Structure formats: C-alpha cells, structure tokens
Amino acid sequence: MKQHTKGNFHQTAAPLLFLLPNILIFGLFIIVPAIQGLRMSFTEWGVFTTPRFIGFANFVELAQDTVFWKTFSNTIVYSLFTVSLIMVYALALALLLYKNTIKGEKIFRSLFYIPSLLSMITVGIAWRFILGDEMGIINYLLRQSGGSGIPWLTDGNLAMVSIIGVSIWAQAGYYMIILIAGLQAIPLELYEAATIDGASTTKTFTAITLPLLRSTLLVVMVLSTIASFKAYELISVMTKGGPGYATKLIVQQVYQVAFLEDRMGYASAMSIVLMLIISIFTLVQFKFTGKEQDYE
Amino acid sequence: MKKILGILLILVLVSTTVFAAGTKEETGKDVTLSVLWFNDANEDEIFLNTIDDYLQANPHVKLDMQIVAYSEYDQKLKLMISGGNPPDVARITTNTLSVVVDSLEPIDNHVADIEAVKAQFLPSMVAFASNTKGEFVAYPTEATANGMLINKSAFDKAGIDVDEVSKDWTWSEWESIVKQVVAANPEMKYGLTVDFTPHRFSTLMYQFGGHFLNKDQSNMEFNNPGTIAAIKWFKHVHDAGLVPKSVWLGSENPAELFQAGLVAGHIGGSWNINTYNKNVTDFEWKAVRMPKAEINSSVPGGKFIASFKGSKNQEEAFKLMEAFADKAHNEMYSRDTFNIPSRVDAQVTYPSNSDDFEVFLEELKVTPAFTANEWKNTNLSKVTTYIREQIVEVLLGNISAEEAVTNVDKKGATYFK
C-alpha cells in the first residue's frame, strides 16, 4: 500500500511539480491575460476611462465592420500563401542540405538560417530599401538599365506579393533547421531497403520521407500559421498596411483600434475573433495531419 | 537584558536614520527625474546641454532619460499613465497633448501667477496647452508650422525666380511653373511631395477652405466643399505625376526624396529646416510661401514638456520645467534645435536659415485660429489614421472623395456621441 502511494507520487505528482514553474508562468502571462481580454471584449473602454459592460455590442459591430473583414481576408490570403510556400521552400532546402553530401553544406545552412535571427523590423527596413519605388535598389538598377520601375509597394497586389516573399525569406531558414532534424531522424535502413527493392526517388519521397516527416511538418505548419496570423512588425515597417488596406492584417487593425482610436474593448473583441480563427486553423491542421507516425 | 539592549539599539538606529533624513531634506533630497523623450533630430542632446547649468546648480537632481521612437511614443506614454507609473517629465506634441491632456498636472497648482506665465508664450501655444477647464497643463518649448521647402537650384536652372513667383501664387500657377522646373531638370521627377500624415494634408485642406469639425466642435464635419476640393486636387496631382505615389501609397520618406533631388518641393514641418541644413549639400534649397487656393494657411503645432498627475517627483519636475522654459533657455534650445521659439519675448539669432524661419512665421500669421482648436480636439486625434486611410482609398481610385468624407464623418460621429 505504501509502495503504491509512492509510485503514484513519482508517476503523477512529481512530474506535475517539475511542470509547476512553467504552468505558473504560462497561467500568469498567457491564460490570465487571455481571460482578461475576453472580459474586456464585452466592455466599452478607453485607456483613461472606466470599462462599461455592453454585452455583445462589440461583436455585433464587428460583424458589420467592412475594414475588419478586409483585414480578415488579407490575413487569410497572407497566411495561406506564406505557410504553404514556407513549407515547400523550407522542405526543399532541408532536402538539399540534410545529408552532409554537398561541399560547404554547413555554410549554406547558416546563410539560409541567418535571416531568421534578424528582428522583423530590421528585415522590413532592409527590404524597403531594396523594394522602394523611388529610392529602392531594384528599381534604381532597372532604371539605370533603361527599364522602368516596378511598383513593388505601391500596387496593392504587388505589395501583398512583396510582403509574402520577404516573410518567406526571413522565416524559411528557421523551419529548414526543424525539418533537417526531422529528416535526420528517419532511419537510413528504410532508404536502403527501398533502394534494394528498386524504388524510384519519387516513390521513396512519397512512401518514406513524407509519411515519416508528417509530425515535423505538422509542427512547422502550426508554428508558421501562428506566426503568420501575428505578423505585425514586418508589415508595419514595409507598407504600414497599405496601400490603402491592401496589406493590412487583423493585428494591425487591432493595434490601430486599441492604441490610436482608444477603443480597448472593441480591439479585444477583434483579438478574441483572431484567437478563434487561429484555434480553428490549428485544430484543422491537427485533424488532417496529426496522425501518429510509426518507424517500425 | 539582551532583548532590552537589542530594542534600544534598534531605537537608536531608527532615530538616527530619521534625523539623518531630516538633515538631507533641508539640503535638497537626491531626486532622479524620469524623463520620457522622443527625437526629431538630436533634441535630447540639446535639451541636456540647455539645462546643464540648472543641473550644475542643483546637483541633487539627476535625470533618467528614456528615448522612445516617435512611432511608439504615444502607446508607451499611455501605457505608463494607465499603469499608474507616469514619467516625471515628458516631451509631447500637440497630437499627444490632445490624447493625454486630462492626465497632465496643471501648472496652475505650482505657480503663484498663472496668467503671468501664460502671457510669456505665443497665444496659439497657450491654446494648445490649455485643458477644458482652462488650466495650463504644459510648458511650450517650440512652435512648429507646416510650410514649403523648395529646391532653389532646380528653379534657377529652369530660369524661374522662385522668390518673385512665390510671393503670391495660386496652386494652378504653381502647377504650370513646377512642370517647367521638372522639364528643365532631367534628374528631377516630381513637383511636390507631402508628408504621409493627415496633419500635413490638412495644410492643403485649410487652404482649399475645408475643415474637420463643425464650428462648435461638437461633431465631425469633414464632408464640406473645401475638404472635398482638397482631396480631389490631391488626387489630381498624384494622377498627373506631379506628386510621387510612393509616399502616400508606399510609405516612402518624402524628406529622402527631396534630399535626393527627385522632387522640386516638400510640404513638411518647420523642423525640416534643421534636417536639410545638415543633410542637403548637393543643391541650394529654401523655404517659400505656399501657394494659395481659397486662402493662405499653414497648420500650427508645437512641442511641450509636461508632468503628470501621479508623477512621483512633481515638485522637482516643475522646477526643472520652469527653468527650461525661461527666456534664456528657450532661446538657446530654439537656436540649437533650429526651431521657432514658443515665447513671445524670445530673440533668436540662428547661425543660418533665418530667412527660412521668417517664411514659416509668415505662414503662421495668416493661419486661421480655428485650425489650432481643431488639432487640439481629443476626439479628432482618434480618427486621424482612418482619415489618412480614406484619402489613400481615394488616391487608389477605390472610392470617391465624396464617399471618403461621408465615411469619415460616420466613423468620427461615434467618438462625439
């Protein structure tokens, strides 16, 4: 009886004790503010005024807010393209660089990884210098060679393409490293067996690599999706959400409503909707790709 | 016995400490003032240089300067105030002033004769720095105005005497003149750039006879013929290629375009005199009077320093601000920052560019008084970003000027209810 109690402590209470600091920090800095945000979303509140309970009025207004829905559709477009292209690009890089067979492979890995170490503000400023209409390096070179400049940041569609491209450039290296770790964890015997069986490269990739990389790909997908829904600094620096509303995402609108228009309650309602969207996306991703992998 | 001895020792220690503290109070308690600041150029250094003599004379006062980027400044200040931890002193603009005005500690509570203090400053500055109760809540440090700086070398090359033509020109005359200037200068691409802010756009709006608010400031009234005319004209000059789209549509820095010699003129704030004085070496530039539409107008503005309700060291903060705002310090600060002084009695001799400052002062003199009242309105400051977005929507051709002003009035009305 005594041993049974001790066993329970080791198996349940002890791990919980080790987790306690993390649970406390997570609760204090994530859960409590999230609950507070939910509470605020039912209020009319400016920074210097007392919150007033208004029920679902903020959510009703949100449903009719055309600017919010424009930023919502921009967020979906930005996220879909950024996440899918990051996954393809990062996987391609990882496949090229995980085997240690190319000369200077580690240098290439570092080169692709370095942009992810930079702050997004630095990345945004640098790329604005490159893509600027009048002062940008690319347009300068185009004009010097007799061509005309391209409105990278002043045409709505091109501005969206530009920020998606820069986001991929800035983040793919980070996900490449995760995928390289995933690829290196796949047992080599499986590839050797496939070679002996005469499987083609494509067949090996679709039958061995992709299925066994599924959980790593899921991690990359979830992380990059969450990051894309929270993209703020890069867009603020590169386009300020413009031209017009062309590249404005929900997070930019939340900032504007909360801190420039002084409507904390309404901004909280937007944040709650954003949280729900991210949760739905994450659940869907888990549903479709989150099966257990088996190396046996 | 040991207990009694211990208690006695503690009593001696406590009484000594209290006595020591009392002595310290008499000689001036050490105080570290928290100062929140932003820079247009290097104003933090000039501020410290200006009050160096005050700090030397008051060695018990130390400053903890926190420099914040202007784009983050309002948010930072608002969070500090709402968190119950406002700075002792902060540099604020007219825009910020309208947002935090109710949190500022009135100077009235700290001086014997507030009317005498107010009388030392320009009336427009006093108007900005007064709250709804009429209390004076911030010391004006510099006056600013919007105006036009032009590339004089480019006008000379086109054979145009810009001093002569700009004496009393209209926007339609400007248009034909600037086309000649661009044509005569192969490196130059545009006639004018305007800062990507509603404040700078409002310069044009006021010139075209427009306004933001109704007369008693009880609601938005952006939907008026003058404002619509200004927006339409602004779209026209963009579509005609006289103004680069990259500023209002692509967030490119207009000052950089001017410094690169790509535009003939720049409508910006008076602080650009300082910037261009330092950075422009390839061509001659100068300030000229802005063209007229319905009327001539600039937009007054300014910078201030203030303390807050709940600031921890208010007494020392007010002593420092009072010293910084006196005649000698204000003249020194205005001269070194290349700014228009905020005091009526200031006599500033700038090392250069005195004529340019004179032009901006002339613009201020003809500016209608209601413009200052509009820009100090707290509710207007909540709609300005939306106004900018709606103007861009017009420039993109997504909506008409009439639709934009209607949208702005609808949105603005929610803040005036």
UniProtKB/TrEMBL annotation, chain A:
Annotated transmembrane regions: 12-35, 76-98, 110-130, 158-183, 204-229, 264-284
PANTHER family, per database record: ABC TRANSPORTER PERMEASE PROTEIN, INNER MEMBRANE ABC TRANSPORTER PERMEASE PROTEIN YCJO
Keywords assigned by UniProt, alphabetized: Cell membrane, Membrane, Transmembrane, Transmembrane helix, Transport
Subcellular location: Cell membrane
UniProt cross-references to Pfam families, sorted A to Z: BPD_transp_1
Topological type in the membrane: Multi-pass membrane protein
CDD domains: TM_PBP2 (cd06261)
UniProt-recorded name of the protein: Sugar ABC transporter permease
PROSITE patterns on file: ABC_TM1
Family label: Belongs to the binding-protein-dependent transport system permease family.
A Gene Ontology term for the protein's cellular component: plasma membrane
Domain (ABC transmembrane type-1): residue spans on this chain: 72-285
